[in-house]
């Protein structure tokens, strides 16, 4: 078998026992059952065709991560020396980026590469290459379209803009529903007076006791940034939160060299700079990658059944095991451990109130359908 000599640094999923069935079309198996492409991966095709030609070509395939996707082009940051691509402080972040196009076979197999994908590329010239293979995905997000995301970095502020806890809890429900980790960063502490700082402290307590990694600081003064940054190490994250809380500012303070407007690629392709809301994954060092996203307005709840909602509030889920009824919705049922925890101050009243609001909203959503 020519697999190993051709590419000694194959990813674990291929080299481990050489089980070819593990190499499958990413992201489809769970949703649509066995995909057409299962067991037939692009790399395997490549190897077979080289073998058929009678000799094994020494080909250089590099591993990397897609950091930007637009109009059929994929920018790939290439791994160096088998290390996960990442830049430490003081290094040039822009090194080793290949602008690639997906090889025809990927299109034939119906594989759409996404930002965040780990891939194999074949360099073809200065800064250019062909995307040969998309490695299996750990996760896949629809909005923003991104693969292998570990966590959502939720940015909030107590003031400027004024906090909206219902919005924040709604966002957290979405993160739970997507089965991603949520990391909370309360920005702009520099604008807070003494009593507001105390108010913020109380809120930090609410979200920490709910189970969320929660940090506070200021992009403007730098306060609190090392702590949150350390927590992000090794993770792929997308930013979320209302408009104006400082998401883009946060990214810029970690990567001061970022061009002011992301849109260079669209310009090159002769398109308007703002025609596409592209997703760009930024290497911020320490093995973490962050994608900016614009703040969005009104947010619908994810379409879940009523009993599911409690599972999307970690602190309610933890208490619900003590409820008398298994299908307890924690409203007025007797023997409800969640309401008892609220009375004892173990679950924050604001979180419980938002839970009840969302429960009513889901009922209305379901009722509208009939
Ligand atoms: N006082 C203060 N202002 C800040 C801080 N961080 C960001 N800002 C300001 O807040 C404003 C909004 O920041 P952005 O980074 O554009 O906010 P955003 O979350 O990206 O907003 P959208 O892209 O609209 O979703 C800018 O004027 C920033 O200079 C901070 O820590 N303190
Ligand atoms: Mg922004
Ligand atoms: Zn209950």
From TrEMBL:
Q: EngC GTPase domain: from which residue to which, for each copy?
A: 147-297
Top EC group = hydrolase
Task: Report the cofactors.
Answer: Zn(2+)
**Superkingdom of the source species:** Bacteria
Where in the cell?
Cytoplasm
State whether keyword Cytoplasm applies.
Answer: yes
Report residues binding GTP: 187-190, 241-249
Q: Does the keyword Phosphoprotein apply?
A: no
Protein name according to UniProt: Small ribosomal subunit biogenesis GTPase RsgA
Species of provenance? Brockia lithotrophica
